[in-house]
Structure formats: structure tokens, C-alpha cells
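Sequence, please.
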């Protein structure tokens, strides 16, 4: 089937390279093969054949594969993102009340045992873990957990005389484990496809947060209006606030357009779509053909580059042979970076994910609620939209510049400082009673997520050039950064009460 696509040129080149490689005992025998100038020239001309004859085919992007990669990426975080946007509807109906978010935060971090296990397996038992089987398992398990959540989220159990939402907490741990583990399994799988599909995958990952948020807005989660506390309400209505004064305004939450049960079924359907997309990415002939060509092409280029380097070093015996890996420059080059640069990239990756996934997310309500409920919802929605928008921009303006990455990280961090400052000043931040204050906080959240999401895409593209192991560690560092951010913020928010929430109905500054 591959011969029909490319006229056999890729297969012949790869076959020749493998034949030369197998001549050695354990790999590429440089001394045995570089003595023959004819063989070297054949291998180098083989690379030229790949580059010239098959360039159009290698660069062709299948629309179907893009769609499947996007749908596959949408399943990465959809369940846990969906649960968080549904909390305003869940919290008034469970015994934990508003303590529930802090419990879920802890459970989400404990769920990092999933990616930790995968990372350790790659480190100490390389090649023993079947990533495809792991992905099938976690996607199916996530679908099942979402279905069970639809039926059991309101069920309670008496534990030591106290009513607890045990089923909700356990299932939250399960779906968190599924989503966290996707970081170290989905990305390495995407490396089997061309680099363009990795960006599309990130668009889908961004949509995994956007789509549940949009559905939640349609559902009416968080919709409320302020009423006088002296009014009489139906006992079934959800009311929070103080009734000490007849003139005191309290938030009255309107009924949702559909139930939390229906919302969790929607999340289960999203996970099932992710399963179907992954199945097709593995089984469809057109996708499998593209994946095979990509892998063989990458292997052929790596081997022929190695031969070219050895050939050049033998032609110039008086020159000192470098002991470090050569760094290739260029905007779209196959960048191989030094250890110092790799460490720098991973530090940026951990910092960016700590800010976006835990540090500022923990104080989003404190930074937005003083400006009103509408400002909070616009901030959450536009921030969710900014993630896939950054990936969409990267499809047309992809960069591997470490300088640009550092500049954007600094710019996004400055915006983060503003957001954190407004959270610290809650319930009376700057411009609290002005429309400009609400506009500024919405814009800050939007550009904060947009900028740092683009940084994530830059890092993913860079690490893809470094190989499979780099993408595995990429996912691990993402979770590590998120964990450290959560560990730092949890006591500040929940133990020391460092932040004070604004009252959407009774702000007095």
C-alpha cells in the first residue's frame, strides 16, 4: 500500500538504510560502511530523493486526520473541566457545600499517580508499556465514570455520623486520573503523526475546556439576580446569603435549563467521541498510511544526517570532532537543543502550567467576583476560548524561537501579576465600581491565557523534534508544575484565608 502512494521511493530508501544498519552487531557500524564512498553517496542521494520526490506527499495534510486529532484532543480534559464549570449547580445540593472545590482540588492532585506511574514505567521499564492499550483503557474508563457520575453524584453515605458525597468524590478521583494520565499518553501518540497534527490536537485540548463552558452557559449555571431578603421564597429554590436585614440583598440562583444529570451524560458522550476518534486514528487506512510514512521519513532523515556528519568529519580529519550534539538553527528546522536549553524549556513549561492550571485558577473568583457575576462568566468563557485561539494562530505562525518563548512568558506573567493583585485586593480591587475595571479584568484573563497557551504550543513543537521521550517528560512536567502550584495555593486560600471573596450583591468599597 505504501508503494502505491510514493512510487516506492520511501520504502527503498528506508530499506537501504536499515540494511546498512543491520550490518553492525548492535547498530550503525561507522567504520565498516563509511569506507565505501559509493555507499555513503547512495545514502545521501536517498535523502535527496526523499526530500525532492516525496516532499509534496509528506507535506499534504489530511482534513480527516485533522478532524480526528481535534476530537481526540477534546477528550483529554473534558470531564474534569466540565465538572468544575458545573460546580455552581452541584454545590448547593451536596452536604459538603462550598468546601467541595477544595476537596476536588486535592483529589485532582492525588490523581497525578496516573501520569507518575506512566512516567516511571518509561524511565525504568522502557518499551514495556503499551501506550495504545493504556489510551484505550483510560478513555473507556473515563466514559464509564461519567455515566456513573450522572446517576450517583447526588447520592450520599453516612461516614462517622456525617453525611458525605462519597460517590461524587470517588468518581471525581477517577475522572481526574483519566485526564491527568492523558498528558503523558496522548502527546507521545500524536508524535507518530506529522507536526501539523500536534497543533490541531492542542486546538482540541483547548476545546475540551471551552465546549463544557459554553454548554454550562446554555444550561444557566451561575445565572442569578439579587433580591431583597425579606421576600418569601419557595423552599425548593436555591438561596444563599444572610437574612439579618430586610434591606439586605441576597443572590437568587435561577433554575437551570437542564439538569446536572443531563450535563454529565453530555460529558460521557464527549468521551465516547474521543474513543471513536482514537479508534479511527489507529485503524483507518488513510491515517495509518500517513503515520507509517511520517515515521519512516523521520527515521530515514535521522540516519542520513548521521552519515552526512560522519562523512564531513572524515573529510576534515584535522578538525576537532564535537562531543556535543550539533544544534540546528532555523525557524522550521529540526531543532536539537543543548541540555541547558532543554532545562530552560522545561522550567518555562512548569512555570506556565503552574500559573494557568492552579495558581491563578485558584483565585479566579476572587479576581473577578468583585466586578460582578457577569465579569466572572465573561472572564471564564473568553479565557476558555483563548486556548484554542492560540493553537489556531500557531497553525499559521509556528515558531521555535527560545527568545520569543521567553518574552511571551514574561509578558503573560506580568498580566498574571495584575490578576493576582486584584485577587489580593478583593473584595475592593482597583476600579471596582467602574465598568473599565470589569473590562480590564476580562481582558487580562483573556490575554493571559492566550499568551501562555501559545507558549505551550511552542514548547510542544520544540519537544516533538527532540523525540518520543521528550514528549513523555513534557506531559510529566505539565503535571508537576500544576501540582506545585496547587500545593502552594491550597493553604493560602483554604487554611490562612489570604483572599476574601467579593459579594456580587452587596459590594461596599
Amino acid at each position: 500500500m505504501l508503494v502505491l502512494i510514493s512510487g516506492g521511493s520511501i520504502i527503498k530508501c528506508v530499506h537501504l538504510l536499515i540494511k546498512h544498519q543491520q550490518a553492525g552487531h548492535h547498530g550503525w557500524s561507522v567504520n565498516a560502511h563509511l569506507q565505501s564512498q559509493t555507499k555513503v553517496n547512495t545514502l545521501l542521494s536517498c535523502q535527496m530523493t526523499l526530500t525532492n520526490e516525496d516532499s509534496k506527499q509528506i507535506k499534504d495534510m489530511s482534513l480527516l486526520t485533522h478532524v480526528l486529532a481535534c476530537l481526540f484532543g477534546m477528550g483529554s480534559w473534558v470531564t474534569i473541566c466540565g465538572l468544575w464549570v458545573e460546580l455552581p449547580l452541584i454545590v448547593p445540593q451536596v452536604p459538603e457545600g462550598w468546601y467541595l472545590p477544595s476537596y476536588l482540588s486535592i483529589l485532582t492532585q492525588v490523581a497525578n499517580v496516573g501520569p507518575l506511574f506512566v512516567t516511571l514505567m518509561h524511565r525504568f521499564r522502557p518499551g514495556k508499556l503499551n501506550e495504545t492499550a493504556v489510551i484505550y483503557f483510560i478513555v473507556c474508563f473515563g466514559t464509564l465514570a461519567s455515566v456513573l457520575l450522572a446517576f450517583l453524584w447526588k447520592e450520599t453515605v453516612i461516614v462517622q455520623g456525617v453525611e458525605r458525597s462519597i460517590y461524587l468524590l470517588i468518581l471525581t478521583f477517577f475522572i481526574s486520573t483519566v485526564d491527568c494520565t492523558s498528558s503523558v499518553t496522548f502527546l507521545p501518540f500524536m508524535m507518530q503523526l506529522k507536526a501539523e497534527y500536534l497543533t490541531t490536537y492542542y486546538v482540541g485540548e483547548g476545546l475540551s475546556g471551552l465546549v463544557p463552558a459554553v454548554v454550562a452557559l446554555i444550561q444557566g449555571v451561575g445565572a442569578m439576580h439579587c433580591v431583597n431578603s425579606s421576600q418569601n421564597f419557595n423552599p425548593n429554590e436555591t438561596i444563599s446569603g444572610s437574612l439579618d436585614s430586610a434591606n439586605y440583598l441576597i443572590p437568587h440562583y435561577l433554575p437551570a435549563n437542564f439538569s446536572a444529570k443531563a450535563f454529565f451524560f453530555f460529558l460521557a458522550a464527549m468521551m465516547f467521541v474521543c474513543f471513536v476518534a482514537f479508534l479511527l486514528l489507529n485503524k483507518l487506512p488513510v491515517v495509518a498510511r500517513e503515520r507509517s510514512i511520517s515515521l519512516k521519513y523521520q527515521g530515514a532523515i535521522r540516519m542520513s544526517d548521521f552519515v552526512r556528519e560522519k562523512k564531513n568529519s572524515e573529510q576534515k580529519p584535522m578538525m576537532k570532532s564535537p562531543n556535543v550534539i550539533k544544534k540546528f538553527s532555523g525557524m522550521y528546522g529540526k531543532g536539537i537543543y543543548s541540555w541547558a536549553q532543554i532545562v530552560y524549556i522545561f522550567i518555562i513549561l512548569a512555570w506556565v502550567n503552574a500559573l494557568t492550571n492552579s495558581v491563578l485558577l485558584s483565585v479566579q473568583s476572587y479576581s473577578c467576583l468583585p466586578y460582578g457575576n457577569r465579569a466572572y462568566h465573561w472572564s471564564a468563557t473568553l479565557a476558555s476560548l483563548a486556548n484554542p485561539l492560540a493553537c489556531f494562530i500557531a497553525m499559521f505562525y509556528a515558531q521555535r524561537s527560545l527568545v520569543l518563548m521567553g518574552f511571551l512568558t514574561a509578558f503573560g506573567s506580568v498580566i498574571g501579576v495584575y490578576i493576582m493583585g486584584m485577587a489580593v485586593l478583593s473584595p475592593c480591587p482597583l476600579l471596582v465600581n467602574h465598568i473599565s475595571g470589569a473590562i480590564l479584568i476580562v481582558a487580562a484573563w483573556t490575554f493571559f491565557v492566550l499568551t501562555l497557551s501559545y507558549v505551550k504550543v511552542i514548547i510542544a513543537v520544540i519537544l516533538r523534534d527532540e523525540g518520543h521521550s521528550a514528549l513523555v517528560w513534557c506531559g510529566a512536567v505539565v503535571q508537576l508544575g500544576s501540582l506545585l502550584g496547587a500545593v502552594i495555593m491550597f493553604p493560602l486560600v483554604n487554611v490562612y484565608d489570604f483572599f476574601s471573596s467579593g459579594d456580587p450583591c452587596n459590594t461596599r468599597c
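Residues 9 and 50 are 7 Å apart (CA to CA).
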